[in-house]
Amino acid sequence: MRWKTHLAFALLCGLFLFKFFKIPVYLFFPLVLFGALLPDLDTPQSKLGKKVPLFSKVANFLLGHRGIFHSVLFLALLYFAFSVLLGKWYALALALGYLSHLIIDGFTIAGINYLSPIAKLHVSGFIETGTFSETILLFLLIGLDIIKIYGLIV
Asked: What's the angle, vertex CA 138, arms to CA 10 and CA 76, rounded to 5?
């Protein structure tokens, strides 16, 4: 999926789950949205990969795209590291965004291996990244985001 689709899905997840978090809204949503972009650091063409090209190129060369960065094992390591650095609730917000990325990448034709690199749990779907079907999904997610935001205001 493209970065916009990841952000729209992460926002939707955050809108549904924010009430369970014990951190300010102005920190929660940036962490969720940043977490949604993190898995694609393993490709220099990604939104974040372009910001840190050297890291991204090395990660891509050594690990490939949709390898360990796209696994729940790396997500667990990331959560524990950020728990120590930021605290449990902040790390959970970041992990929520990260997990949303993994979930929606499972709907792509390329799919992901959720247990990379130690086991195989490959999931793939029917959406090809960057095509009209992803654009439809993006607009659907944006519509759901707006409906949920409106529902929170009323």
From this structure: 25
Report d(CA 16, CA 113) in Å as an integer: 26
Q: In angstroms, rounded to a whole number, what is the distance separating the alpha carbons of residues 21 and 111?
A: 30
pLDDT, tens digit, for every residue of 72-123? 999 999 999 999 999 999 999 999 999 999 999 999 999 999 999 899 999 9
What φ, ψ does residue 86 adopt, rounded to 5°?
Answer: -115, -25
Q: Which residues of 106-128 are buried (b: 16+ CB within 10 A; e: fewer)?
A: bbbeeebbbebeeeeeeeeeebe
The pTM of this model reads 0.93
Angle at 76 between CA 70 and CA 80, to 5 degrees: 135
**Per-residue pLDDT tens for 57-66?**
888 888 878 8
Task: Report the chain's terminal Cα–Cα distance, integer Å.
Answer: 32
Alpha-carbon distances, residue 93 vs 22, 27, 96, 149, 152 (angstroms): 10, 9, 5, 18, 19
